[in-house]
Write a structure and sequence with these properties.
Blueprint (H helix, E strand, L loop, with lengths): L9 H10 L4 H10 L5 H8 L4 H24 L3
Helix pairs in contact: 1-2, 2-4
Length: about 80
């Protein structure tokens, strides 16, 4: 059974970035994209999936993160 490993290490980093003036859109995009494409998650998935599939997953997650960040900015968050 496959699980995404939530590292939770990104939460304090993003909180600090928000305190320094980072926008909510980019912060939300980071929260969405960092756990699925973290090194532990990819290392675990390497045993189960071909490199081509993992590359597709990484590209998809990054793409959806960019779209989500741009959407949050467009909606005024």
């Amino acid at each position: 059974m496959l699980f995404v490993i939530p590292t939770a290490g990104e939460v304090p980093i993003i909180q600090a970035m928000l305190a320094l003036g980072m926008g909510v859109g980019p912060a939300g995009a980071l929260l969405m994209t960092l756990p699925p494409i973290s090194v532990p998650s990819l290392a675990m998935l390497t045993r189960s999936f071909a490199p081509r599939v993992l590359a597709l997953v990484v590209i998809s997650v990054v793409g959806f993160g960019v779209v989500a960040g741009l959407l949050a900015i467009a909606l005024g968050f």
